[in-house]
Design brief:
The structure holds two protein chains of two kinds. Chain A is built from twelve helices and two strands, in the order αββααααααααααα. By secondary structure, chain A is mainly alpha-helical. Chain A has a single domain, classed as MetI-like (MetI-like fold, Orthogonal Bundle), CATH 1.10.3720.10. Chain A has a two-stranded antiparallel ribbon with strand order 1-2. In chain A, helix 2 crosses helix 12. Chain B is mainly α. Chain B is built from 13 helices and two strands; from the N terminus they run αααααββαααααααα. A two-stranded antiparallel ribbon of chain B has the order 1-2. In chain B, helix 3 runs antiparallel to helix 9, helix 4 crosses helix 7 and helix 11 packs antiparallel against helix 12. The longest helix of chain B is centred in the N-terminal third of the chain and has 37 residues. The two termini of chain B are 38 Å apart. Chains A and B meet through helix 1, helix 3, helix 4, helix 5 and helix 6 of A and helix 1, helix 3, helix 4, helix 5 and helix 7 of B.
């Protein structure tokens, strides 16, 4: 056994940096959340307020709406991504000439900066020269206005997220499909199951761990979406696409309500951890069930 | 019989190609439209949507490349992303080497703790980091706010866990017998790292560094809130186009197109690893 001291010496730079940029901020919001601290308020500085910020949060309907809206956005986007991703992964699971080329093109959105994704979609949907409003009006006589119609703005952000992240789901699903054991599938076909039955009773149960992991990771990402939505709609019209990240940003920066912003950040973090923990245990149970 | 089999094969490929051509068009269309807009002058901007580039208006690109503040942002982005990628790859190599070759008490917990840093929503940490950068982390008059070093350190919060997760698999894959043989020959830890681990892990380190570079290059939220003038990056430059009244869409599209180039340049190298990276090694291909 070699000296543990060497190992700690190698690990310590990483741990120190993560401590400073990861753990210290966490304890900082924990602390500031107990204070009334607004840079624009009449009394300067921090004033101990106990649980006042948290009391305000529970009755803050716009914030709760924003959390629910973010969750709704995530659920719709992920459902669509799972369906499209599954179909595309099936098409990638068999070999065909040119597969590599299509795969590389499909991966492009994953590498694009979220802010640039927002910029491209803004250019597509902007009234005046964007092709989306133009052709929707000309071909379907459908009035599309992302800056005025709340539900259209919401669905545009969902579609943008689908464009951005479906490749990720495709690739995880593909990894799952290629790792599938062959015997159960062949057995089911021998027993006379049709394709739908094979899909529902054999493939889905076998793929469940990978579907859950994908949903878990996608949910984490969707819940922290800020850049692309900020660029596309700026959170508007009104608060139609003001997801939690944008909401916190608004409280913290233009309004400089630091104490309240801290409480809000902590609550959001708590929700994120809660949801991820629930999914994580679900995955764990699934894994245990397999054995 | 033979004929119908080939016909079926062609039919099967036909749907595959049909779906994939459609998927590729949908994937590329928004990016292509951005390039179309970047090639239009202000006057042509409001012409009816036309997906064919009739004349390339280079001025959008020339103006953005010659704009002194955008040049500065570009340099900042390159410096920050490169330093961060080198830093996290080096630190992650040491960390994963330690985690892989020594049985440390609580190693699993350390490993799990690193992932939580990447999972947390960045918006949650904006406020504490802003306050820490402007008020707490200071040395005399010097504050961490609006410095490249601040961003380089900060991007470790998502890139370091990512690098550790990707490199862990690579280092675990190097047989420990090689280390032991070298130790028998009298090599120290430094020698083993230099002569065995680094050469064998080099491809993995390159992929880690490239992906970290792209993540740092693409980052916006932290850069926007923790810099003001000196250390702004290119993504904040892109965002500034929108907040200014009378947006120059052509130039904005040109900047957005320029930010895509590094990612597109590396895509065929890293596309097999991006899934592993994004799923923290949970999904391998």
């Amino acid at each position: 056994m070699r000296q543990n001291r060497t190992a700690w010496f190698f690990l310590s730079p990483s741990l120190i940096i993560l401590f400073i940029v990861g753990l210290v901020p966490f304890f900082y919001i924990l602390y500031v959340g107990f204070f009334d601290w607004n840079a624009f308020s009449l009394q300067k500085g921090m004033h101990y307020a106990g649980l006042e910020n948290y009391r305000r949060l529970v009755f803050d309907q716009p914030f709760i709406n924003s959390l629910l809206l973010t969750f709704r956005f995530a659920v719709y986007a992920i459902l669509v991504q799972l369906v499209i991703g599954y179909v595309l992964a099936n098409l990638l699971a068999t070999d065909f000439p040119g597969k590599w080329f299509f795969r590389v093109i499909h991966t492009i959105p994953l590498m694009v900066a979220p802010l640039a994704v927002g910029a491209t979609w803004r250019l597509l949907t902007i009234p005046g020269f964007g092709p989306v409003p133009f052709y929707l009006d000309r071909w379907f006589d459908f009035e599309y206005s992302i800056s005025a119609n709340a539900s259209q703005a919401f669905w545009t952000t969902v579609i943008m997220d689908v464009w951005h992240w479906t490749p990720f789901v495709t690739l995880t699903m593909l990894a799952g499909l290629t790792a599938l054991p062959r015997e159960p599938l062949e057995q089911a076909l021998v027993d006379g199951a049709n394709r739908l039955q094979v899909f529902w009773y054999v493939k889905v149960p076998l793929l469940r761990p990978i579907i859950l992991s994908t949903v878990f990771i996608r949910l984490m990402d969707a819940l922290r979406t800020v850049d692309e939505v900020w660029m596309l709609t700026g959170g508007g019209p009104a608060a139609a696409t003001r997801y939690t990240g944008l909401y916190i940003w608004r409280i913290v920066f233009p309004k400089t309500d630091y104490g309240y912003g801290s409480a809000m950040s902590l609550l959001t973090l708590y929700f994120t951890i809660l949801i991820s923990w629930l999914l994580y245990t679900a995955i764990g149970q699934q894994r245990r069930g397999e054995r | 019989m033979q004929q119908s089999k080939t016909a079926r094969k062609v039919g099967k490929y036909a749907t595959t190609y049909g779906v994939w051509v459609l998927a590729s068009i949908i994937t590329l269309l928004p990016i292509y439209w951005m390039i179309v807009i970047s090639a239009r002058s202000r006057v042509e901007l409001f012409d009816r949507p036309n997906f064919i580039i009739q004349s390339f208006f280079e001025e959008n690109y020339i103006n953005t490349i010659n704009d002194p503040s955008l040049q500065k942002y570009m340099v900042n982005s390159i410096v920050v992303a490169t330093s961060n990628a080198v830093l996290v790859t080096a630190l992650a190599l040491l960390a994963t080497y330690a985690l892989s070759r020594w049985r440390l008490p609580g190693a699993d917990n350390i490993f799990f703790w690193t992932i939580t840093n990447r999972m947390a929503p960045p918006a949650v940490f904006l406020l504490p980091l802003f306050l820490l950068f402007t008020k707490t982390f200071r040395y005399g008059d010097w504050i961490l706010f609006d410095t490249r070093i601040g961003l380089i350190l900060l991007y470790c919060v998502f890139n370091l866990p990512f690098s550790i997760w990707v490199l862990q698999g690579m280092i675990d894959g190097i047989p420990i017998e090689l280390d032991e043989a070298a130790m028998v020959d009298g090599a120290g830890t430094g020698m083993i790292l230099r002569r065995i681990i680094i050469p064998l892990a080099a491809p993995g380190m390159a992929i880690t560094a490239i992906l970290s570079w792209i993540f740092a290059w693409n980052e916006y939220l932290f850069a926007a809130t923790l810099t003001s003038v000196k250390a702004r990056t290119i993504t904040t430059g892109l965002a500034e186009f929108v907040t200014v009244t009378g947006t120059n869409w052509g130039e904005m599209a040109a900047v957005a197109t320029l930010t895509l180039i590094p990612s597109l340049a590396f895509i065929s190298f890293v596309q097999r690893y991006i899934v592993m990276g994004l799923t923290f090694g949970a999904v391998k291909e």
